[in-house]
Backbone:
């Protein structure tokens, strides 16, 4: 008799949100913008900003700790730690190493994963594959970004969009057949380089007085082009994952989308046939926190609003720098 494939399930969620708020009104004082423009074009009202001197690992560690506490799992039971981020504390060591040390996760290995706003989704699916392999029992998948560390607060095109936060999930083997993380679709296309990148600080253009003078250590985005790719491709993979699992929008309890722009989220939900009452939206409060948006949404649905019950289908989707994008089908266990 053929045995069912081993799957992973999301066993717990944790998050960290910095206290400090940066509102649209605050940004009106910094650049030529208005609350009305930001709200109508993006859906954002305010974002959280981490205090200077605290890196990505500060937030990732706190999200991971809450996640383990909620699960009643101790740090020495964690087998692997994957951190999706584009704003690590340092190029090396990895943020995963810093989280491992902070947790005291003595048995764990792990690594950082760079996939822009898809960082958490790719960490989630990679973590699920580790569990599916049968070699690992407990994997922490984390999305954490200190976007304020790479944002030019003189550039109104980008500074209104981003915030800081971290979220974590614990993945464990799913003992019930037909439940857990059922399927994933994920893609990359390097065509995105031209439209969303950080010009300097890497090996092609290492930091120099000139790169600093030219403000090349900040996130650069051609918003309109990225918007067009995001609005199409995030919807395409979200529809594809439904189709290939013989599901329709009406079967889905919640869409858990990356929070880059409310208009992108609405378009994705519409193409999937999902009403906005079944979509998690918190971009108004936290803006685009890059790799942290999806776990923040999961936290809101699972912990704060308790909207998710056993057997519910969730679709998790993201699109980001690279380009990178993907969609994950979860049946809550
Ligand atoms: O998460 C990673 C992936 N990223 C995304 O998915 C982001 C995708 N892009 C977007 O969400 C949108 O393109 C933005 C929100 C970034 C921009 O919205 P848009 O509707 O595409 O505006 P736009 O860039 O076409 O700019 C329209 C106008 C321009 O003025 P002109 O050229 O029409 O005179 C901009 O200069 O709005 C101007 N503008 C602003 N005005 C007030 C740009 N930024 C601002 C601002 N305040 N902050």
Residues:
């Amino acid at each position: 008799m053929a045995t069912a494939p081993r799957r992973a399930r999301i066993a717990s969620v944790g998050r960290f949100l910095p206290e400090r708020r940066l509102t649209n009104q605050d940004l009106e004082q910094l650049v030529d913008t208005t609350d009305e423009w930001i709200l109508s074009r993006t859906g954002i009202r305010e974002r959280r900003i981490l205090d200077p001197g605290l890196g990505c690992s500060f937030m990732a560690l706190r999200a991971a700790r809450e996640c383990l506490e909620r699960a009643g799992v101790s740090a020495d039971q964690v087998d692997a730690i994957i951190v999706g981020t584009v704003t690590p504390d340092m190029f090396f060591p990895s943020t995963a190493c810093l989280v491992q040390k902070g947790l005291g996760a003595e048995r764990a290995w792990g690594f950082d994963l760079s996939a822009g706003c898809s960082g958490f989704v790719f960490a989630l699916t990679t973590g699920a594959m580790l569990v599916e392999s049968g070699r690992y029992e407990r994997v922490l998948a984390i999305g954490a970004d200190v976007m304020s560390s790479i944002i030019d607060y003189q550039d109104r095109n980008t500074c209104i969009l981003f915030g800081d936060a971290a979220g974590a999930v614990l993945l464990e083997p799913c003992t019930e057949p037909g439940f857990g993380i059922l399927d994933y679709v994920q893609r990359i296309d390097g065509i995105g380089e031209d439209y969303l990148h950080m010009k300097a600080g890497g090996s092609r253009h290492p930091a120099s007085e000139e790169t600093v003078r030219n403000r090349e250590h900040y996130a650069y985005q051609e918003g309109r082009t990225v918007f067009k790719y995001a609005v199409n491709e995030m919807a395409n993979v979200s529809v594809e994952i439904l189709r290939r699992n013989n599901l329709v929008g009406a079967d889905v309890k919640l869409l858990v989308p990356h929070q880059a722009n409310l208009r992108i989220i609405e378009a994705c939900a519409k193409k999937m046939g999902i009403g906005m009452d079944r979509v998690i939206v918190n971009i108004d409060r936290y803006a685009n926190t890059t790799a942290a948006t999806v776990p923040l949404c999961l936290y809101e649905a699972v912990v704060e609003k308790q909207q998710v019950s056993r057997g519910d289908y969730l679709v998790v989707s993201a699109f980001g720098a690279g380009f990178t994008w993907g969609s994950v089908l979860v049946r809550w266990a």
About this structure: The chain has two domains: 7-174, 180-331. Residues 180-331 form a domain with the Peroxisomal Thiolase; Chain A, domain 1 fold (CATH 3.40.47.10). The pocket of oxa(dethia)-CoA is lined by residues 33, 37, 41-42, 117, 156-157, 160-161, 223-224, 226-227, 230, 260-261, 264, 288, 319-320 (CB under 6 Å). The chain has a mean pLDDT of 97.
